[in-house]
Each structure stands twice: as C-alpha cells, then as structure tokens.
Amino acid sequence: xxEGIRHRRLRDQYxxxxxxxxxxxxxxxRYEKLRRLVVLKGIPPESSRERSTHKSLCSLRGRIWKMLLxxxxxxxxxxxxxxxxxxxxxMQAKIEKDILRTFKNNHDYHQRVSDGQLRRxxxxxVSWIHEGTNECANDSGSGGGEGGLYVQGMNVLAAPFLYVMxxxxxxxxxxxxxxxxxxxxxTKDLRGAHDGALLLQTIVEYIDPELATHxxxxxxxxxxxxxxxxxxxxxxxxKPIALSELLKLWDALFACGVHMNVVxxxxxxxxxxxxxxxxxxxxxxxxLCIQRDLPMLDADLLVTLSLHIVRKLPDDMYxxxxxxxxxxxxxxx
Length: 333
Known about the structure:
The chain is mostly helical. The protein folds into 3 domains: 3-69, no CATH class; 76-181, Helicase, Ruva Protein, domain 3; 191-323, Cyclin A, domain 1. 68% of the residues lie in helices and 0% in strands. It is built from 19 helices and no strands. The protein has helices at 3-18, 27-41, 48-53, 60-69, 76-85, 89-101, 107-112, 115-140, 155-164, 167-181, 191-207, 209-218, 224-233, 243-256, 260-271, 273-278, 281-289, 299-312, 315-323.
C-alpha cells in the first residue's frame, strides 16, 4: 500500500468518527475510538486543500483537537466582543513582549499566522477571564481573584492552535485547554507546573535512580523546577522541537491527557541520560536549562517511551500525576 493511499484511508477513518453520531453509538464511544486511533496511527499530513484554507476552515487535526479537548460550541459574537474589550494595560504589555518571541525563527509558522491573529486571541482570552472574575467578585462581594492573569508563555500555547485552525476555533480551544484541562498551571503561583516538576523528579527517581541521583547531586536536590518549569508551562513548546513534531506531540497529549506533559519531559531527560551522566554541572545547565546543543526531538520516539514509562508507574503515583493539572498534588515520594 502506498503512503498516499494509507493516509487517505486513515483520513476516512477520522472523518467517520468526527461526523454526527451514528445509530447506537454514543459520543463517548466515538471519543474513545478517536483517542485510540490518534495514539496508534497518528494524524495524516494536511492535504493541499487544508493548506489553502487554513485561515477560514478548521483542518482535520484542528477538528480532532477540538473533539479531544471537548470544544463543542464556538461563539463568534462572544469572541468579537472580547477582542474589542481589550485586556488590561499591564496584560497587553506582557502579550506584546511574548508575541515578538513566538516561534521567532520559524518561517513556516509566520507564513500562516500573523501577529495580529495571535494578539487578538490572547487579548480575547484575558478579557474573558477578567470579565468572568469581575462578575464572580460582584456576586460574592469578595474582591480580586486571579482574573485577567496572563502567564508568560501563553503565546506558545495559543500559536499551535492558530497554525492548525482558524482564529475563532483557536480562541475556543485555548480557553478550553487552560481552564478545563490544566487550570492549576495558570494560577498566580503556577501551582500545577511546580507540582508537575516534583512529579517529574519522582518519576525519574522511580524509572532511573542512577540518573536521578546524579541530577539531585548537581542541583542539591530540587532539580525539577530548576531545569523543567518552562517546558512544563509551555507543554513542551519551549523545547528544541520542530513545529511539525510539536503538533504530533500535542496529538498524543490531547488524546492521553495533559498530565502526560510531565511524562514527556521525563522521557526526554531519560533519552539524554548518557550525556547527562557524563557531564558536570555546567554541561547539565547547558542541556537542561539553556537547552543548548540538543538534538531535535522525535515526537514518535518520545511518545513511545512515555507510554512505556506510564505502564511501569505504581497506581498511586499515576493517580497523582493524572490529577495534578486540576488539583494540588500530594506528591508520592
């Protein structure tokens, strides 16, 4: 079977799952079939038609992501209103700084996504959060809260959505991702990411004690946050990874759950074990913190190793891992 025929058949399988539910098939059943298909077969490359309509229509990958994230209703009027509301001035300044850094040297990304699109999506997201918090504060009589919070790096969470779908759908997916799938990652103290860093250490200690001891010695115990916080907050978008590979990594992330973000990071560290074990503190700093001179990530290899790691984890450790994006973790040591 030629590659082209295989991709067409796979595309047909996805189209059947994305259509309105068939007789005697629940939405949940279709969702589970979709998850398995993504993990086992991947998503075929975009078609020439998708490349020419990406600004107005949602690509196959975009439609799959929407279903995996649970985005069902997209309100265009709401989006336009939040774009025009504009985020608080302090948030706008942060957004502008991040826009300049977004996939800075990626020509393919900048051919497809404009700074204006990214600016509108981020502005609308912050306006939505800000308005919602103000309404809650007025109702309860309590002031403040975390509304309007813009966490540095949200630009690289919005950008992949804009690459695979239109602006309106990208906004809906960003809102759903941050406020339903990993709300602890966007609190003022970034609690979910810090818990993820502790879980990262725990997982590496369990899977590869020698490597964990080496890292703990070099960083005097707390190496998870020092080396991996940007990676965890960006869902691996800050790593040395091609955009095409990042999209494949996010396919698996949305299919398996955002908690797999931590396992992907652990798997990457384990893939680097020989170089890490051979290096002193300066080499560890260059590889893990600055991410200098690292090979580009292979998404398929990373996902395969991550699934292997997950199968080895004790149930209590996995349960903590699974719930940490939603609730404060009690990390298993």
